[in-house]
Structure formats: structure tokens, C-alpha cells
């Protein structure tokens, strides 16, 4: 059954309305028809219903069932990803959304090659990444789609995450594993920090350790930046009982 995300204002008693690009997807891509069942998700609640009408800009659905979703981890992984070159960020967002990451911060570090200085270009990137996250969340039956935040500097990130649970995969760390690091986790929020292609500068690692970050090893092999976040999130989810 196909899943779509809606807002509160799209629900009225026993009817819900699908709007925007989803209408074209329903009509022209999925080729759904009157009477077909769909799922709609709003703030963690799942609505099951049958299509009543398909119009040019609106799909009307009769609600048959409502229940609380269970497709989200019991804790939140916030991924701060050093912005990589090319379309690697698209891949990272897609796969980490499928895994269950709650929120993404595109991160500028000392060794980040990609520098987005134009606000219009930044807005365009955030819009594209949000669309990728939404589509991945629908495909993987998430009960929400992750928030893609504005691009953030390393120093601003440090101020944002002080005093929280912080895990940083680092190629020079040889002993401390994620399994060891999560023993100190105090609540349901984990900040996962991934460097860009060139990794973190030593002074950045020292700054992170200075605010209590756990640097961890992901094993004896060096992983690419587009692999590290996926692997680290997977291990976190496994060790904390979600996978």
C-alpha cells in the first residue's frame, strides 16, 4: 500500500485530502484509481482509506482506519554530515532516512571542499534533499520524514550540541567502539558527527573531545564519508535495540 505524508489541515472528520506533487504521482506514476487503498501519515498517526475522487490538483480519500504508527526508533539520531562532493549527500540522506535518522545537518568543516556561499543555491540544495528524504521515508514506511536543516558551520554545531550525547567516528581512534560509547548515553537523542572526504582536522577532534564527544572506531578499514554515516547509524540502531 502506498504511503503519503499529509498535514493536519488535510484531514476533516472522516475525509483526508492529498495535495501537491503527490496528486500527480498518484494519478500519472502509480496510476491509482477510485476505490484503491492508500496510507496517509500525519504526526505519527497512520490513516488507511479508499480513494473517492482523483481531480487535477486534489485526491479525496475516505478514512477507514486510524492508528498510531510504530515505524520510528525509540531514540533520535541527529546526523551532522560534512558536505561531500557531487551527489554523495543525496545518497547519504536517502539511505540514512531508510535506516531511521531523525534529522540532518549539512556541515561545513575545515576540510570540506564544497562551499555553498550563495543563499539561493543553499535553498535549492535543502529543497532537493528534503524531497529525497520524503520519498525515502514513504518507501521505507517511516511515520515521519526527517528534517533537513540549513547548512551549519563547525563552530555553530559545537555550540548547538554542547552537553548532549555525541559520537564521532574517527580513523585514528583504535579502541573505543560505538558499543562502549553508548554506555554513557543519558537520553533518547544521539548526535552523530561525520567528517567530509578529508576527515576532521586534529584541532576539530580536540574541540569535539573537549565538549565530551566520544570518538569511536568503525573497524580497521577506512570508510568513505558516504559510507561512514550509514554504518555508524546502523550500529547505533542495532546496539540500542531497534534493528
The ordered string of helix (H) and strand (E) elements is EEEHEEEEHEHEEHEHEHEH
Q: So, CATH architecture of the largest domain?
A: 3-Layer(aba) Sandwich
CATH topology heading of the largest domain: Alpha/beta knot
How many angstroms does the end-to-end distance come to? Answer: 23 Å
Count, helices: 7
Overall pLDDT level: 93
Indicate the overall shape: elongated
CATH class of the largest domain: Alpha Beta
Contiguous low-pLDDT stretches (5 residues minimum) are none
Q: What portion of the residues fall into strands of 2 or more residues?
A: 25-35%
Multimeric state of these chains? single chain
Q: Structural class, please?
A: alpha/beta
Number of domains: 2
Estimated helix fraction: 25-40%
Radius of gyration (CA) equals 20 Å
Main β-sheet description: 7 strands, parallel
Topology:
Layout: E1 3-5, E2 11-12, E3 15-18, H1 21-29, E4 37-42, E5 45-54, E6 59-68, E7 76-82, H2 88-99, E8 103-108, H3 119-139, E9 147-148, E10 152-153, H4 154-161, E11 165-169, H5 178-181, E12 189-194, H6 202-210, E13 214-216, H7 225-239
Parallel strand pairs: 1-4, 7-8, 7-12, 8-9, 8-10, 11-12, 11-13
Antiparallel strand pairs: 2-3, 3-6, 4-5, 5-6
